[in-house]
Amino acid sequence: MKAKPVKVTDTTFRDAHQSLMATRMRTESMLPIAEKMDNVGFFSMEVWGGATFDVCIRFLAEDPWERIRQLKRHIKRTPLQMLLRGQNVVGYKNYPDDVVIKFVEKAAENGIDIFRIFDALNDVRNMEVAIKTVKKVGKHAQGTICYTISPVHTIEYYVKVAEKLAELGCDSICIKDMAGMLAPQPAYELITALKKNVGLPVHLHSHSTSGMVMMTYLRACDAGVDIIDTAFSPLAWGTSQPPVESIVAALKGTPYDTGFDMELLQEIAEYFRELREKYYDPLRLIDPKAEKVDPSIMVHQIPGGMFSNLLEQLREQNALHRLKEVLEEVPKVREELGYPPLVTPTSQLVGIQAVLNVLSGKRYGIVPKEIKDYVKGFYGKPPAPINGKVKRMIIGDEELITCRPADLLKPALNEIPEEVKPYIESEEDALTYVLFPNTAVEFFKKRKTKKEEAKMSAPPERLEELERVAAVSVAVATYLSSLGEVKALTLARNKRGISPWVLAGRQSLAERGV
């Protein structure tokens, strides 16, 4: 066979830890290994988008914009890739066009080279503005089809969506198999159809949840797939992607041989293994359930990120013992709501409704506003009609919208409240606020406090003195700890008559600049 090396995208800095540990990897954990990863030869590295933006400001006290700037300084050869939720940007609802346009412009300016753009409902109308803007700023637009299994999601359906994406000017097509349900033969048939009818490079993104992914990837290579997604082994398998080391070893000597250096891959994997053993495992950030192979996903179709969210919701309600009931409820809700693919934000919508149906004891007795908006059409057009009885239970006789949802939204970037403006330091900050108003304000306040505290820290000319004091203090403490008769809080004077408490006092004064 003619050699056709498959290209590889690494997801370790984004989807891998989003799927396994709720997106908790910090930028400081990425930077030490980033340059070595840059030397592997990946087609791209997925480092941003998805839940990373929200988690950075909500839980990690990090500026997501600064993350990509720092990564770009360390990763100079490999294109940086992000996951963009179409009109949802990196949030959970549709945003006005001015927000989408400015976000793409600033993301490109800060370092993103490839934009994987999708819509949870495969409604191309919700992807159009983002795709056109990516092309306008001269970056790679990867149009995405969300793969799922239902009576309406046929190969013909997917090809039609991909053709529309190609007409908008996309540079490649991604099959986003967010739940790992794409079996080997359907993968072969779908990729073959896309290559024949659309003609763009095909990028396959899948997860290991069902246990089929290695066979699916090999069959995808047979069909001519151009790029596949993997992660480094310590953050692979389960609800994450398959391990890059295993993929590279399996394809070695075949026409699809990646040509990657296995020794280099092992060095990088060891870094993540130590990171996991020192921090993630002791903190129990990775739920064991998220690492298991779960063939039942072929029934409930729940992707990794959604699964970890469900676990967290049930844990908060002390209802983890009802997980099985929720998993059984999810496909029922999905069918009644028109078979939406289970990807953000529709995965959250279906998941939350399933949890409420189970815990409340009455199906659709409690319905969040977001579900009502979905049924009305504010998220886009569902793949299939919504169950009539359920629709009446949720919105009664209210009318549905038929236009592109964003056409009903007013520009938002110029509507920032006056009381918030003092915290806005850049165009990026304005976007952060518009996307997550409440969370952003709290983040800005913490950032301001941190900067004020930094101003009060010791000036450079005091650092040498502080270092001397600290060194003496450590030496004294070490000496005292070596004395067999020394007891806690009974530090004796040394031969020169200087009490350790005096030294400690001097250090405290020095730290305060006295």
The total count of helices amounts to 22
Strand content: 5-15%
| Helix share, percent | 40-55%
- Over the alpha carbons, how many angstroms does the gyration radius reach? 26 Å
Order of helices and strands: EHHEHHEHEHEHEHEHEHHHHHHHHHHHHH
Globally, the shape reads globular
Distance between the termini: 76 Å
Q: Stretches where pLDDT falls below 50 for ≥5 residues? A: 484-496, 508-514
- Widest β-sheet, arrangement of strands: 1-2-3-4-5-6-7-8
Mean pLDDT: 90
Number of strands: 8
- Characterize the largest beta sheet: strand count, sense, and whether it forms a barrel: 8 strands, parallel, barrel
Structural class: alpha/beta
Task: Please give a structural write-up.
There is one protein chain. The chain has 514 residues and is an alpha/beta fold. It contains 22 helices and eight strands. The chain has an eight-stranded parallel beta barrel with strand order 1-2-3-4-5-6-7-8, surrounded by six helices. Helices cover 50% and strands 8% of the residues. The protein has helices spanning 12-21, 27-38, 52-60, 64-74, 97-110, 128-136, 155-167, 184-197, 213-222, 244-251, 262-280, 288-291, 297-300, 304-316, 323-336, 346-360, 369-376, 388-395, 427-435, 437-455, 460-481, 500-511; strands spanning 7-10, 44-49, 80-84, 114-117, 140-146, 172-177, 202-206, 227-230.
